[in-house]
Amino acid sequence: MSTSDPEHNRERDSEATFGDYGGQYVPEALMPALQELEDAYERYVLENEDGFMDEFRERMRDFGGRPTPLQRADRLSERYDREIYLKREDLVHGGAHKLNNALGQVLLSKYMGKERVIAETGAGQHGTATAMAAAHLDMPCEIYMGRTDVNRQRPNVYRMRMNGAEVNPVEAGSGTLKEAINETFRDWATTVETTHYVIGSVVGPHPFPKLVRDFQAVIGREAREQIREKAGRLPDSVVACAGGGSNTMGTFHEFVPDDDVALYAVEAGGSSLGVDEEEGVAPNSATLSTGTDGVLHGAMTKLLQSEEGQIVESHSVSAGLDYAGVGPELANLVETDRVTPVNVDDDAALNGFHRLSNLEGIIPALESSHALGYLEESHDELGDLVVVNVSGRGDKDLETVLEETEKRDLEAAPDVEVFDG
Amino acid sequence: MTDDSNAAPESDIETAIRENDPALITYITAGDPSLEDTKRYVEALDRGGSDLIELGLPFSEPVAEGATIQAAINRALDAGTTPEGFFELVDDLETEAPLLVMTYYNMILQYGSEPDVRPFVERAAEAGLSGIIVPDLPAEEADPLREACDDHGLDLVFIVAPTTEGERLETIMSQVSGFAYVQARLGTTGARADVSTATHESLERLSEYDVPKAVGFGVSEGDHAAEIVEAGADGVIVGSALIDIVAGSDDPAADLEAKAEELKRGAVRGAESLTVDTEDTPEPEQP
C-alpha cells in the first residue's frame, strides 16, 4: 500500500478503513446506496434515532432469545484441567449468532424504507436467519446460495423456504459462498434503489464491516459481563472460529481494549495449508494465517489468491467457513498483533464436533467445532480461564458429519455405521 | 496536467472520440478463447470501424458483469490467460484505434511483487495502452491509480451510473479523463433488446459537462447506437453483443468486423438525424 496520498487516507481512515484494510471497492451504481447506508448506520445504530436500537434489543430479546448463557463446561474443564466456559450462541433463535446481524439489518432496511431484502449464504445459517427476520418483519426476501452448499445444507434450504424466502442456487465456480456473494452483488446492482443487501458477515464495503460488527458485538458484551460475574475476572483467552469473521469480531470486539485477554481466531485448515496455484485451489480457508492483501467483494483485506490476483477456490468441511476472504477489521487486528490467527484441519474439527456432543450434550456447528478442535490441541497455551464461542448448533451439519466421519478414523467419533438404514 | 488556464492537451482517447464523433467503442475479453484469437478479433474490430477498443483482462470475480462476459472471462481463465500474456498481446497489436484495458482493481494491485498500482500502470504504458477502466473502483478509492495514470499519460475512465447524481456527479465529472462511461441502466453488462430510458435521463443530466460521453451496458444493435447518439452521446460502447459473436459464430473475425460496421453506421445515422433536427428541416414522414 505504498501509493496512497496520505491526506486522502487520513480522511478516509476515520470513516471507511481499518489501518490498510477496508474501503469501498464496488461498482459506481452502488455507491449512493452505501452512502445512504452510512447515514442510516450513524443515525439509527449509533444515535438510536427513532428508538431503532431499543426496538432492535427488544426484538432480540423476545424473538431472538437473548441474552444467551455463558455456560461452564464441566467435563471439558476437567479434561483440560482449567476453567472452560462456552458462550452459547447456538441457543439464539435459528441456531446461530447469525440472527443478531440479520434481524438488525432487516429492521434497519425497514427504517430506511426499503421494499425488499436480498442475502447470500454459505452454510445457510445467514440465509435462514435473514429469512426468519424477514418473515418476522414482513419483508420480501431472496437468498443466493452456491449449488454445492445447497446440496450439502438441505435442512437450511427447507427452513428458508418455509419462512417464505426465495432461494436461488448459484451454479458458477465451485458453487460456494464466494459465488453466492458475486451473484447477490449483481442483483443489488440492478435493484439498488428499492433493495437492501443483508450482507452476512463483517465483510464487504464500508459501512458493512462496522454495521455487522456492532450488531454482533452483543456476543462479547454479554460474555464479558457474564465471565466477570461467574469467575470474578476477565478470561485469559477468548477463542472463536473465523470464516468471514462475524462471530469472531462479535465475540472479540468488547475484549479488544483488554490487553491481558488473548484473542484466538481459529480458521479452517482444511486438508492442507498449501495453495495449488496451477489448479486455482486452496484446500483450506485459512485466510488470516496464509492469505495476502488484495481487494475482493468491496474491501481491501486478506485473501486466498494466486500471485496474479485471481481468487482461488477455498475448502473447508464446514460450509460456513468456506470463503477466500475475511473481514477487514479482523485482518487489521491480526496485522497489528492483537488477534492471533490459528487453524485446525478438517479432522480436528470433526473430532471437536463429536467431543462436545459426547462430553457436554451440545451438538456444535462444524464452524464452532474448529474452535473446539483448537482447544483440544492447544489448551496449554490458553491460560487458566478460557471462553470459547459456540457460534451455532450442528443440526444442519449432521449429514456432512456422518459422511465425513465414515471416511476417517476419528478418535472422538462414535460408531457411525449404526446410522446406515 | 498543467496549471494553465488553457485546457490540458487532449489525450489519445479524447481525441479519438472527438474526431470521430459519434465514436464506436468495442469491448472483447482478452484470451477468449485464446490470445491468438483475440489478436485477430481486435484487428477485425479495428477494420470494422471501432474508434476505441477495450480489452478485458480477466478477473475471477467479475461482479459488474452479466452472464455473457462472465462466461467469456471463465473461458479466458481456463485458457490460461495471464496479465503478462495480456500485455504481450498488446505489445503485438497495431491498431488505428487506441486501446484501453478494462479490469478489476485486484488485478491491478497484484501486478508486481507487492500490492501496488504502479507496476501495472508502467507496464500498460509501455505496452501502448491509452487508458484504464476499473468497474469496482469508485472515485473515492481512485487517488493512487489516478496519480499513477497521470504520471504515465494514461486516462482513467470513470463510470457514471443512473444512480450517480448531485455531489457525486460533480466529483466524478471533475475527475473524468478520456471520456465519461455512461452506464445505460442499473445492473450488470449484457446485450438487451432496447435502449433504457435511464440513458436519456443520464445524458440529460450530463449535458452541461463538456466532456465526451459514451454509453454502454445493453447496447447491441445499430438502431440502439442511433438512438443513443440522437439522445446526445458522443459514443456508444458495445461488449456482450460482440462476445456472443466470439462464442457462437463460425467465422468470428468476419462477423465482428461486420457487426462493428453495422454499429458504426447506426451511430452515424443517429448523428445525421441530429444535424437534420438542428437545421430545423425535419425529414418528411415515410409514406
TrEMBL record, chain A:
Catalysed transformations (reactions): (1S,2R)-1-C-(indol-3-yl)glycerol 3-phosphate + L-serine = D-glyceraldehyde 3-phosphate + L-tryptophan + H2O
One MF annotation (Gene Ontology) recorded for this entry: tryptophan synthase activity
EC top class named in words: lyase
HAMAP family reported for this sequence: Trp_synth_beta
One Pfam family recorded for the sequence: PALP
Annotated family: Belongs to the TrpB family.
Stated name of the protein: Tryptophan synthase beta chain
Domain Tryptophan synthase beta chain-like PALP: 64-392
Region (Disordered): 1-22
Record's compositionally biased regions (Basic and acidic residues): 1-15
Description of how the protein assembles with itself and partners: Tetramer of two alpha and two beta chains.
Protein role: The beta subunit is responsible for the synthesis of L-tryptophan from indole and L-serine.
Pathway(s) it belongs to: Amino-acid biosynthesis; L-tryptophan biosynthesis; L-tryptophan from chorismate: step 5/5
TrEMBL record, chain B:
Listed name of the protein: Tryptophan synthase alpha chain
Protein's UniProt keywords contain Cytoplasm: no
Known EC number: 4.2.1.20
One Pfam family per UniProt: Trp_syntA
GO MF, one annotated term: tryptophan synthase activity
Catalytic activity: (1S,2R)-1-C-(indol-3-yl)glycerol 3-phosphate + L-serine = D-glyceraldehyde 3-phosphate + L-tryptophan + H2O
Positions with biased composition (Acidic residues): 277-287
